[in-house]
Design goal:
By secondary structure, this protein is an alpha/beta fold. The protein has three domains: 2-39; 65-271, Rossmann fold; 277-449, Ribosomal Protein S5, domain 2, CATH 3.30.230.10. It contains eleven helices and 23 strands. It has helices spanning 72-78, 98-112, 125-134, 150-160, 185-202, 223-227, 274-278, 326-340, 365-377, 403-412, 442-449, and strands at 2-9, 15-16, 32-39, 66-67, 82-83, 87-92, 116-120, 142-146, 164-168, 206-210, 230-235, 242-250, 258-264, 267-270, 289-296, 299-311, 319-322, 347-353, 385-387, 390-391, 397-398, 417-421, 435-439. The strands form five sheets. The protein has a nine-stranded mixed β-sheet. The longest helix is centred in the middle third of the chain and has 18 residues, at 185-202. It is globular, with a radius of gyration of 26 Å.
Length: 450
């Protein structure tokens, strides 16, 4: 066997025949490590026998059966359950609950569908047992394997034929075909590739746990996210009990769905009504607080927006946001200044989506503007009012999608008034106990609300 020495960037996987101080692809410094690779002479792959292309219309179009994970919020994010042979990558900060939720999922699958295999490369079998006892997990068909050798793991999968497999984590796995250390770009890519082939051939759905970098991105080569069928991110602050599971890639479902969980002593518990959870500690009679409705996938969520506007003693006033786009805040402050006459350029502004929620859609614009004006003028918004609408640069309030779904969700939680764009009024049916007000501009909305 002929061996060659190459240098691989651990940030992006760029290859170089010599060591470089700075990666020319991703710009990372001191990220190259030496790897020795072997290549057998005459190692060209022979064409597979009996493989040929077929017309797409002749491919069987059977409906794919899905395997329920036993947790409805988890099934929602996956698109309705696990698809046979799918490869699911789940990432998140350390301690956020990745291993906990997967252990709970595997426990249900072991009880309802058959044997399930949990492979731990970070904990011993005894440590996994202690964690399972804390979560009250006792399924007799839940199998645990403390191993990091990929060849051994694949052998166990072939021997046991489990209904589902968890690899925790991909950064601890290694294959004997490469001499590089576990967690390196080459090892992660090669191990993920072999697991993908095994999942597709056997039809066994496989979960892969991935570490994240300090920037919040999944560690390892970018190709890892392209190889898998689904990429899930666990989000949340360890200081809060709430966790949000979000799909950023899904070949078998929507990428807009989220699942909301609450961390308790016995593990993660799904939250059936996230809106009530986000509003549970909302202060009453305080300026700068507004409630908006956002759509996450097919689910409407009510979220409280909190704004604090104070005179600044700095030459450049501070602009701080949590859960809200910083550039969107700058745009809305400019609209308030130019179109309404509220001069906030000399004030420090802090804007927060309470409960760790993240607002990305423009339908929350009117709620942000109202919260800012409320804090600046020190006037309280009616606590039974929900505010929805997109704000344009001319100060107009633009129509939004699914207005009736948003208003109905607010009515379920006891809100009695909704301020929405005038262009969306015709799409909302009359609701008992709910007053729906249409506005055409930011100035008109502030006159109604403040």
């Amino acid at each position: 066997m002929k061996t060659t020495t190459i240098y691989v960037c651990q940030g992006c996987g760029y290859h170089s025949p010599k060591w470089l101080g700075k990666c020319p692809d991703c710009g990372a410094w001191n990220s190259f490590t030496e790897e020795v690779r072997g290549r057998e002479k005459g190692g060209r792959l022979a064409p597979a026998a009996g493989v040929k292309a077929v017309p797409l219309c002749e491919v069987a179009g059977e409906t794919e059966e899905r395997l329920s994970c036993g947790i409805s919020e988890f099934d929602r994010v996956l698109g309705g359950g696990l698809v046979a042979g799918s490869l699911v990558l789940i990432g998140g900060d350390p301690g956020i609950g990745k291993s906990t939720i997967l252990l709970q999922v595997m426990n249900h699958l072991a009880e309802s569908a058959g044997p399930a295999l949990y492979v731990s490369g970070e904990e011993s079998a005894r440590q996994t047992r202690l964690r399972a006892e804390r979560l009250d997990i006792r399924a007799p068909k839940l199998l645990v394997l403390a191993e990091t050798s990929l060849e051994t793991i694949l052998g166990q999968i072939a021997e046991l034929s489990p209904r589902a497999v968890v690899i925790d984590s991909i950064q601890t796995m290694f294959t004997a075909g490469l001499e590089s250390a576990p967690g390196s770009v080459s090892q992660v890519r090669e191990c993920a590739g072999k697991l993908m082939v095994a999942a597709k051939r056997s039809g066994i759905p496989t979960f892969i746990v991935g570490h994240v970098t300090k920037d919040g991105a999944l560690a390892g080569p970018r190709v890892l996210e392209h190889m898998v069928d689904t990429v899930l991110y666990f989000e949340g602050d360890q200081g809060h009990a709430f966790r949000i599971l979000r799909a950023v890639k899904n070949r078998f479902g929507s990428t807009n769905e989220i699942g909301v969980f609450e961390m308790k002593e016995g593990g993660l518990r799904e939250v059936a009504n996230p809106s009530a959870l986000f509003l549970s500690e909302r202060p009453v009679g305080v300026s700068g607080s507004a409630v908006v409705t956002t759509i996450e996938g097919s689910r409407p969520l009510l979220v409280e927006l909190q704004a604090l506007v104070t005179p600044s003693s700095l030459g450049v006033p501070r602009r701080t946001t949590l859960g809200v786009d910083h550039n969107r805040l700058a745009l809305l402050v400019a609209v308030l200044d130019k179109k309404v006459g509220l001069h906030l350029s000399g004030s420090d502004i802090f804007l927060n989506a309470a409960g760790g929620a993240r607002l990305n859609e423009p339908a929350a614009d009117l709620g942000m503007v109202t919260a800012l004006a409320s804090s600046h003028l020190d006037k309280v918004i009616d606590p039974q009012t929900v505010i929805i609408g997109e704000v344009g640069l001319a100060g107009e309030v633009r129509a939004i999608t699914q207005p009736e779904t948003r208003v109905r969700e607010a009515a379920k939680l006891g809100f009695t008034r909704a301020v929405i764009p005038a262009g969306s009024l015709t799409q909302v049916s009359p609701l008992a106990g709910m007053e729906v007000i249409g506005v055409r501009s930011v100035e008109e909305a502030l006159e109604r609300l403040l």
